[in-house]
Amino acid sequence: xxxxxxxxxxxxxxxxxxxxxxxxxxxxxxxxxxxxxxxxxxxxxxxxxxxxxxxxxxxxxxxxxxxxxxxxxxxxxxxxxxxxxxxxxxxxxxxxxxxxxxxxxxxxxxxxxxxxxxxxxxxxxxxxxxxxxxxxxxxxxxxxxxxxxxxxxxxxxxxxxxxxxxxxxxxxxx
Length: 174
Fold this sequence. Notes:
Layout: E1 3-6, H1 13-23, E2 27-30, E3 46-48, E4 61-66, E5 69-74, H2 86-94, E6 99-101, E7 109-113, E8 116-120, E9 135-142, E10 145-151, E11 157-166
Parallel strand pairs: 1-2, 2-3, 5-6, 6-8
Antiparallel strand pairs: 1-9, 4-5, 7-8, 9-10, 10-11
Domain Calcineurin-like phosphoesterase: 1-139
InterPro entries: Calcineurin-like_PHP_lpxH, Metallo-depent_PP-like, Phosphodiesterase_MJ0936/Vps29
Keywords: Metal-binding
């Protein structure tokens, strides 16, 4: 299974569609700030949440399960992710999620904190504090392991982000 995780597309629907077509994921998670009409989002299996710039009626946060992995999805602004990742980690633990997907900061993050993988795909349109726009792809490997890869909007690998992570408390490999 291939899961595309994307955030902060800020009205760039054509780019969002291009990335979805290129990645050909089994599921897409959009962490908010799509800033288009919901009808303009790709017609793929999709979990989408509302960002601070969105006006469409979509959930503020969501839970999604795949291959024994529980994902907590939110935009991040309600958890003050620009200041600390601790509140979002605590929320993921409260809802029993192994992966917390969020956006808002426009900065790509992939780090394990205890048994929670904190994953911000960055922004596909306007990075902040990072040199290029990014999105992420997560692939379950079995036995609690996942691999996370980051890419720029043209599909080129971003090698200083991502890695292999054990969601059951084992050692991660960067």
